[in-house]
Design brief:
single chain, 150 residues, alpha+beta, eight-stranded antiparallel β-sheet, 3 helices, globular
C-alpha cells in the first residue's frame, strides 16, 4: 500500500482507537468467501447456459485492513479516491485465529476464523507483488489456528 493510502487509513482508524491502543499493521487486501474452484465453475455454468454469449466471475472485494494489539478493523476501499469509504467490521483479536499462510503463484492468503462464534472462515488475499511485507506484518499479530487432534 502506498503512503497516501496508508495515511488515509490511519486517519480513519485513529478515530476508533481506545486510549493507548496503536496500529501495528495495515494492508490493502481482497476478501472473499468464494473459492477459486467455485468461481471457475460459476463462470463455466454461465457460459454454457447463455450459449457462450456471457461469462461471469465473482471479484473479491478490496478492503483496507488495520490490526492493533486488541482488534482488527476492516474498511471498504474506495478505489477512485484511494481512501477508506466506511467501516465494515471490527473483530476482537482475543478469539480470532488464522490458518497457515498459503503462498500461491499470483497471491498470498490465509483464512480468518472467529473461534467464539464458530462461523465460516473469511479468506484474506494479499497481492504477490508488494504484498509480502504487509502479509508478514499482519500475520505476526494474529495467532495461528491450532489443529485439533481427533
Amino acid at each position: 500500500m502506498n503512503a497516501r493510502r496508508r495515511r488515509a487509513l490511519l486517519v480513519a482508524v485513529t478515530e476508533l482507537l481506545e486510549p493507548g491502543e496503536q496500529v501495528g499493521a495495515t494492508a490493502l487486501v481482497n476478501l472473499s468467501e468464494v473459492s477459486f474452484r467455485k468461481n471457475v465453475a460459476m463462470g463455466i455454468a454461465a457460459a454454457v447456459l447463455s450459449g457462450g454469449a456471457m461469462s461471469m466471475a465473482m471479484a473479491p472485494q478490496p478492503m483496507y485492513l488495520a490490526v492493533t494489539g486488541e482488534r482488527l478493523f476492516l474498511f471498504q476501499a474506495n478505489q477512485a479516491f484511494a481512501k477508506p469509504d466506511r467501516l465494515v467490521g471490527v473483530l476482537p483479536l482475543e478469539n480470532l485465529k488464522r490458518t497457515e499462510v498459503k503462498r500461491g503463484l499470483m497471491k498470498y492468503s490465509f483464512d480468518l476464523v472467529d473461534e467464539a462464534r464458530e462461523s465460516g472462515a473469511l479468506r484474506v488475499f494479499f497481492p504477490r507483488i508488494g504484498g509480502g511485507r504487509e502479509l508478514d506484518a499482519v500475520a505476526q499479530l494474529i495467532p495461528v489456528l491450532s489443529a485439533v487432534a481427533a
